[in-house]
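re: ur question from yesterday

yeah so i grabbed the chain u mentioned. its 357 aa long if i counted rite. heres the sequnce exactly as i have it in my notes:
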Amino acid sequence: MPSNWTRWIPAALVPVVAIAGAVLIPIAADATPALPEKSPQQLLEFIAGSADAQYSGTVDQTSNLGLPDLSSLGSSYGSGSRSAASTAVELLSGTNSARVFVGGADAARIQVKDTLAERDVIRNGSEVWTYDSKTNTVQHMSAPAGGAPDAGVTKTPADLATGLIDSIEPSTRVTVTETARVAGRAVYQLVLTPADDATLVGSVILSVDSETGLPLDVRVFAAGHNDAAFSVGFSSIDFGAQDAGLFSFTPPAGATVEEHQIGDHGEDASATREFTEPEISGVGWTSIVEISAESARGITGADGRDPSVTGLLDQVLVPVSGGRALETSLVSVLLTSDGRVLVGAVSIDQLQAAAAK
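ran it thru and got these structure tokens back, copy pasting raw so excuse formatting
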């Protein structure tokens, strides 16, 4: 369930979408397709024009952040519908897959198959439903119009690419590299390169469908690494009108249903915990998000609502001066001794320096 602070997480991860001189790895072994040349600006406009596309397909998300295998942790924490720890483990390591159905800008359904269970997120206009078949729990939210939901595990390549494009600024160089194929379709490859070498991010490739302009694949490279540290892409996709019934949902008999109201910025109006907007220091690829101790209590498990979070943090954080930290190849997290959380695509040293100000 989204909480007040979650809308700020993309701000912390915006630097995780850049490209900086890494080796560009072909997406497929097929011969590169011959396509009419397009400039970076033309491709950006092409992507913007794909917002109303209708399609269905399978999306695979892979993380290779240089962390040890955390799969056993995800299965051992939390007994609820989906503990925060389990979701975090899925995102931090391994490969996840989801079925995606998109019926335009305001209609989407994402299905994540688990062992003998399924999770669904359905959006139809301003209404959003989430369902976990394992526990037969439902959450119903009234959300602002626009955008597609995510299933707590993966976003579509179009969602990620849109966020990346929105973050482009003078410190980012945009270029076009050789064509390729994704899910059997010819694509252009758009490269974003940050000018600031203080970021952990090395490179990102956006693969853009040559017929529709829809982003089909996003690959993020850490500085100094040739293999993608994070990727989200279609392994199969079919374009065409979607059955409107896919975006309707009725809670199953006996399901536990929670009702929530979501504000214009994604806040849960039913939440009662005090929230202070995070402070953002720096700009562009080296920006750092600092969340106050009070607001961070729900993230770190200090509020006692999800003990599984505390257990996971104990496993992945290491003691450093001024608190505990996690540094992956793309992003670092610092939990200070006084309860604050700092996040950025920078080194732990940079987070510590920001925390001391």
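noticed a couple things. Helices lie at 9-13, 40-48, 71-76, 84-92, 157-166, 293-300, 307-316, 348-356. also The longest strand covers residues 228-239.
anyway ttyl
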